[in-house]
Design a protein that fits this description.
The chain is built from 12 helices and 20 strands. The chain is α/β, with parallel strands linked by helices and 424 residues long. It is globular, with a radius of gyration of 22 Å.
């Protein structure tokens, strides 16, 4: 399809990086629309492992042009480090990577505030990565953010840094006993970063709209997942932006009439990092260890992910709020050794069953999952390249997911490598 949004349908970490890489072979443009370096996409090609935090995984295809949209908050030092690592691996990004001049910058005080707030609120931790993403979005909404375009005018950059640091240094000193940050040091560092970033700065909205008008194939890539959306997720245990499909339009500067379809990426089970409810979470004392089987550790932080059974209540909610037309199901192979596999079909709360995803966190925390149990296939799926080559019970499991979500499966991942992918 000409313009397709690829969105995570759980709490992030669904394997979007691999799916974007797979789809990028036939895409002209790939654009990231929100988030920052708090997200990580892992792609394995020929045994080589690539971990990307800001740059879309479409960059690994030499013909694909990649964009970082205005909805992102960008740490320039992290971006340049990522560019350097790709260059070392033989991936040339020059002329293929562009950053919106309207994107906001993550500043040193954002990272410091993020880390200090988490440490100071031990009882009410959100579980942030400490990368400064939340405070950067706060400043954006507070209309005191610093944007990429501000790097191009030293007088404007200086005035904004001086103004912001008056407030930030006062907060850091009063609340956290932190020594003040030096505005001259920050100004010097960001001037140097600007010299390296200049070739990448562009009007991304215009470039994408021109590309769409000329018939180019576009993939819009979100970070995190539906249940981490600032409006629609498990608030307050969410990210600070809009990973759902609606965020693509505002985060890239393209109109909703330009979107052709939405592909949802969902694991064959459920995981989340950080705090907040996870209704289908498997107890640590259980003999089923999906964390080890699936190598469930964060690509950005290395933090262990909490794991649970597939949650169809979550999946159906994701279809509802994103307009998902089809699924890409990842990590099917992680379930290969299990004798039984559960699917949560509903929640039970105070004796009543329901299939709606509750907005009230207190309700969600006390919901009991209602399970349907299917037999496992206990045969490796990693070598399958067609749906018919999968074990019969694996096919039955996937058909059950399709039926309960009323959404067809289009792509199945049976391993981390690019070639371990089935297109249905």
């Amino acid at each position: 399809m000409p313009v397709q949004i690829v969105v995570g349908a759980q709490w992030g970490d669904e394997g979007k990086g691999k799916i974007i890489d797979y789809l990028s072979e036939h895409a002209d443009l790939v654009a990231r629309y929100q988030g920052g370096a708090n997200a990580g996409h892992t792609v394995v090609i020929g045994g080589e492992r690539y971990i990307l935090h800001l740059i879309p995984s479409g960059i690994l295809h030499p013909h694909t042009i990649c964009y970082l949209g205005n909805g992102m908050v960008i740490d320039p030092a992290a971006l340049l480090q990522e560019i350097g690592l790709l260059t070392q691996k033989g991936v040339d990004v020059k002329g293929r990577l562009f950053i919106s001049h309207r994107a906001h910058l993550v500043m040193p005080y954002h990272k410091l505030l993020d880390q200090r707030r988490e440490l100071a609120n031990e009882q009410r931790k959100i579980g942030t990565t400490g990368r400064g993403i939340g405070p950067a979005y706060v400043d954006k909404v507070h209309r005191m953010g610093i944007r990429i375009v501000d790097l191009l005018d030293e007088a404007t950059l200086r005035e904004k840094i001086m103004h912001n640091l008056k407030e930030k240094n006062a907060i850091l000193k009063a609340l956290y006993g932190q020594l003040p940050l030096d505005p001259e040091v920050i100004l010097r560092d960001y001037r140097e970063l600007d010299e390296q970033l200049d070739p990448y700065i562009a009007d991304v909205s215009r470039a994408l709209n021109l590309g769409i008008a000329s018939g180019k194939s576009v993939l819009c890539e979100g970070a995190q997942g539906t249940l981490l959306d600032i409006d629609l997720g498990t608030y307050p245990y969410v990210t600070s932006s809009t990973p759902t499909s609606g965020g693509a339009c505002t985060g890239l500067g393209i109109g909703p009439t330009k979107i052709d379809r939405v592909l949802g990426v969902i694991k064959a089970y459920t995981t989340r990092v950080g705090m907040g409810p996870l209704p289908t979470e498997i107890a640590p004392e259980s003999d089923i260890d999906l964390r080890t089987l699936g190598a469930e550790f964060g690509a950005t932080t290395g933090r262990p992910r909490r794991c649970g059974w597939f949650d169809a209540v979550v999946a159906n909610y994701a279809v509802q709020v994103n307009g998902i037309a089809a699924w890409a199901v990842t990590k099917l192979d992680v379930l290969d050794t299990l004798a039984e596999i559960k699917i949560c079909t509903a929640y039970r709360h105070h004796g009543k069953e329901g299939k709606n995803f509750p907005a009230d966190l207190a309700v969600l925390e006390h919901c009991e999952p209602v399970y349907e149990t299917l037999p496992g296939w206990q045969v490796s799926t990693t070598g399958a390249r067609t749906f018919s080559a999968l074990p019969i019970r694996a096919q039955q499991y996937l058909r059950a997911l399709t039926e309960i979500t009323q959404t067809p499966i289009e792509i199945i991942s049976v391993g981390p490598n690019r070639e371990q992918t089935i297109f249905c």
